[in-house]
Amino acid sequence: MEITSHWRIKKQRYALVGEVCPHCSAKIFPPRDICPECGDEAKDHYQFSGRGEVYSYTTLYNAPAGYEEQAPYTVAMVQLEEGPLVTAQLTDIDVKEPEVGMPVEMVTRKLGSEGDRGILIYGYKFRPVLETA
Amino acid sequence: MMANKNQKTNNDVFIIGVGMTPVGEHWDRSLRALALEAMTAAREETGAMRPEAIYVANMLAPALSRQSHLGALLADFSGMRGIEAVAIEAAGASGGMALRQAYLALASGMVNTALVVGVEKITERVTAEVEAALITSSDADYESIHGLTQTALAAMLMRRYEFEFNIPEYAFAGFSITAHANGAKNPNAMFRRPIKVETYQRAAILSDPINMFDAAPVADGAAAIFLARGDILPSNLPFPPVRIDASAAAVSTVAVHDRPNPLSFAAAEKAVKVVLDRAKINLDQIDFFEVHDRYSIFAALSLEAAGFAALGEGWKLAESGAIALNGQIPICTFGGSKARGDTGGATGVYQAAEAALQLQGRAGEIQVADARIGLIQSLGGIGSTAATHVLSAVETL
Fold first, then answer.
1. CATH level 2 (architecture), domain B13-393
2. Theoretical Cys-Cys bridge with A42: which of A35, B142, B254, B386, CB 3.0 to 4.6 Å?
C-alpha cells in the first residue's frame, strides 16, 4: 500500500469519521457514499463517538508479513454504539482479558510501518473502558 | 430446458473429462507444470480433444509467483496457441466462478468446448507472505491494515457463533473427523490419515477458538475439467458424461463487519436457492454436497445457508454423522479442503472434478452409494462470493 492510500482515509483512521444517511438516518462506517440500508446517496459526514462493545475477538500468532514483530496480538470486531461493526486491534488488554460484550473505546495508536523508509501508519485501536475513580 | 432428466439436449453442458494432481507441497513443480498435468489428464479422457477456450482459475499467482496473464501462459505451455484463454479471479471462489464462466459460454452456444483449469502455487513463499497474500481478498483499508488474517476473521465468526448459540465444547470436531476419514481414501489428498476426536481436542490453537484441525492447509495443486455442449458430444467416451444441471453465483460484502449478520453466509444462501430453482429440484434430492470447508465454521455456516440446518445448528449434522459418506447429506466426500488440502482458486475445480467422479461411480472407496445429483459450492473470502452448481449423472444419451 502506498502513502496516498493512507492519506486519503486519514479522517477515518484518526477520528472515525463516517457518514449519516440524510434519507433514513442510518449511521455508516466505513463511509461508502451509498446507504447500505436504503440504497440512497449518503455523503454527509458523521463523527462516531468511538465507544462500543466487543462483538467478537481472537488472538493471532501467525501474523501476515509486516506484522510479525507485533505478534501475538488481539483483534476484534467492535459494535459501535451508533450501530456499525468495525474491525481493529484491541490494546491495553494486559489489565483486562477481553470478552464478548466488553465495553471498549477508541484510541489512536501506531498500526505499523511500511516500506524501506519506515513510514509510520497511525489509526484506531480499541481499549477496555477503564473504571472511573 | 430439461424435458426429461435422463435425456440430453443440444444446449446441455457436460463434463466429459477430469484431471487432478495430488495436493501438497510440490517444491519440484512449477505453476505451469502442475496446470499442464491436470489439463493433459482431463483431455486424455476425451481422446485428447482440443478445447475452443480455456478458463483458468487462480487467486494468488500475481502475489506469490509474480505471474499474471495465466490464460495465455497456460494455453501456450499446453501447446494450444491460438485459442481463446482467460484467467478468472474471485479469491477462493475463482474455481467455481471459472466453471460458471465456461458454463455460460457453452450454454449460450457461442463456445462448443472448454477446458477449465484451476491451479495454485502456494509454497513458493514463507507463511507470513502467504498470509499477507491470502488477506488481499479481504478489505485492505478496513480489515487487512489492522493485521488481520483469514484465520483470524474465521476465528471471530466461530467465537461469536459459540457465544450466540449454546453449543457443547468441541462441537465442530465432527467436520474435521469426517473430512479426514474421507481424505484418507483419496489418493490426491494432502493428508491421508483419519483422526480421532482426541486428536482434535489436543490440537494446538491457531487463532482462538480455531485449532489446527479447524483450519484447512493451503497448498499446491491443479485440477481440470473438460466441458462440451450436448450437440457435439463424442460417441465413444470412456466414462459417462456428467451434466451441469444449473449454475448460480452471488456476492455479499467483502468486509465481514459490513454484514447485517456476520453469522449468515448470505451469498451462499442466495446462490444455493437460485441454483436449486434453476435445476428444478429441492434439497431432499441432493445426494452429496461439496462444501468449501476452509474452516470448520465455514462448513457449519454453509450447511445452514443452504438450508440443511437451522441457524446455529449446522454443527449438529457433524456430531450426528449426517455428513458422513453413508449419512443423510454427505459433504467433502474426497476430504474437502481440510484433508484434500485447499488450493486457493483451484479448489472449486477440484470440487467439480470430485463430484464428477462420484456421479460416474468412479470414487472407489469413497463412493457415495447411488449418487445421482451433487451440489458443489465454491466460496471466496469469508463467504463473500459463492459459486454454486448442480451436477447430475446421465442415464442414457
1. 3-Layer(aba) Sandwich (3.40)
2. A35
CA B321 to chain A, closest CA, distance in angstroms equals 29
Separation in Å, CA of B52 to nearest CA in chain A: 39
Of the pLDDT bands very low, low, confident and very high (cuts 50, 70, 90), residue B123 is very high
Contact assignment for B159 to A64 by CB distance below 8 Å: no
ipTM of the prediction: 0.96
Residues A53 and A66 in one domain: yes
Does A54 share its domain with A38? Answer: no
| B262: contact with A, CB 8 A cutoff | yes
Q: Cβ of A72 under 8 Å from any chain B Cβ? A: no
Domain assignment of residue A116, given as a range: 49-133
Closest to B346 in 3D by CA, of B375, B380, B374: B380
Does the pLDDT value for residue B396 go beyond 70?
no
Residue B5 has a pLDDT of 52
Is pLDDT of B343 > 80? Answer: yes
Cα end-to-end distance, chain B, whole Å: 16
**Sequence-distant (≥ 6) Cβ neighbours of residue A62 within 8 angstroms:** A71, B127, B128, B131, B149, B151, B206, B207
String of DSSP letters for A63-128: PPTT-GGG-SEEEEEEEETTS-EEEEEB-S-SSS---TT-EEEEEEEEEEEETTTTEEEEEEEEEE
pLDDT of residue A18: 97
- Same structural domain, A32 and A60: no
User: What value does the mean pLDDT take over residues B76-91?
Assistant: 98
Query: What is the nearest CA distance from B159 to chain A, expressed in angstroms?
Result: 6
Same domain, A66 and A35: no
Which residues of chain A make contact with B141, given a CB cutoff of 8 A? 5, 9, 30
Closest residue, chain B, to A28 (C-alpha):
B258
Q: Which among B131, B140, B208 has the least Cβ separation from residue A58?
A: B208
Domain with residue A91: its CATH number is 2.40.50.840
